[in-house]
Amino acid sequence: MRSIRFFTICLAVIAFVGMSFTTDLTPPKKIDLTKSIVTWKGYKVTGSHEGTIQIKEANLDYDNGMLKGGQFTIDMTSIKCTDLEGDYGNKLVGHLKSDDFFGVNQFPDAVFKITKVASRGKAGEYKITGDITIKGTTKEIKFNAMTDASGALMADVTIDRTDYNVRYGSGSFFDNLGDKTIYDEFELKVKLVESN
Fold it and tell me: Which stretch of DSSP H or E encloses residue 129?
């Protein structure tokens, strides 16, 4: 009888300790892929080009309303140019998809995974650290993000393409490019909209 009572007490203690260390995380928030979008902008000596890329998968993790983690996958095959039309736009997109740039036949996805989130001191504003994989190469990046009035998570991200072996037209690796030089950094504007 004593052994049964002792066994019962041990089970109760284990259950209590287990509950004490359980974190009550909110289930990951699903993202509406039809409303979420990434826009890109790249620069060269003679100007710039911009366009969109579709988000393939995404989720965000929250704890008591505070962003804690998440990740999203970008469909690199969906690259579009919005500042050029017709043959000019198609030629640029084709070049961006080629091995000179992002090699989308071999690397159709780019993935970003949050590894750390810190509050910037104001509700809904964060400093995010994470790993982004582009063209098979993974690097850590940091950027600021904020939740807008509609609840969408917004972020402006600057990436050095040469970190991911995208060196075509880079003045950092090729001499005497003149006005054909394409700058190493490009910008992404990310908008993640939660599903209703």
Answer: strand 125-134
DSSP H or E stretch at residue 9: helix 2-20
Length of the chain: 196
Q: Are 82 and 51 in contact (CB under 8 A)?
A: yes
* DSSP H or E run through 52: strand 47-63
Confidence of residue 48 (pLDDT cuts 50, 70, 90): very high
Q: Do residues 111 and 71 touch, judged by C-beta distance below 8 A?
A: yes
Compute the C-alpha angle 101/107/110, nearest 5°: 90
The amino acid that residue 110 corresponds to is A
Span 101-110, pLDDT tens digits: 999 999 999 9
166 burial level (CB within 10 Å; 0-12, 13-18, 19+): buried
pTM attached to this predicted model:
0.83
Instruction: Give whole-number Cα distances, 39 to 35, 79, 187, in Å.
Output: 13, 9, 8
Nearest alpha carbon to residue 152 among 35, 66, 22, 10: 35
Distance CA 90, CA 104 (A): 15
Question: 79: closest CA among 69, 70, 89, 66?
Answer: 89
Of 115-119, 133-137, 192-196, the one with minimum mean pLDDT is 192-196
